[in-house]
Design goal:
74 residues; mainly alpha; 3 helices; 42% helix
């Protein structure tokens, strides 16, 4: 996209591809975070910490979204 001359990325960063539901976007985002943390949910540097969400809430949401976090565990 366009970048302002000041070096600040423009507010409009358009992602390619179709618009997915918020649930699907959340699922993908959680999966990216899981891949990043090696399946670590709680504690410093875990997914809950990265996403700034309560681990209990995160687990419930992952169940609802059918995220299989075991496949990200080392």
């Amino acid at each position: 996209g366009h970048r302002a001359t000041s070096g600040i990325p423009s507010v409009v960063e358009v992602e390619e591809g179709p618009i997915v539901t918020l649930d699907e976007a959340m699922k993908r985002h959680i999966e990216r975070a899981l891949a990043h943390t090696g399946g670590k949910i709680e504690g410093k540097g875990g997914v809950a910490d990265l996403l700034d969400i309560n681990p209990h809430t995160l687990r419930a949401r992952m169940r609802k979204l059918n995220v299989d976090w075991n496949k990200y565990r080392a």
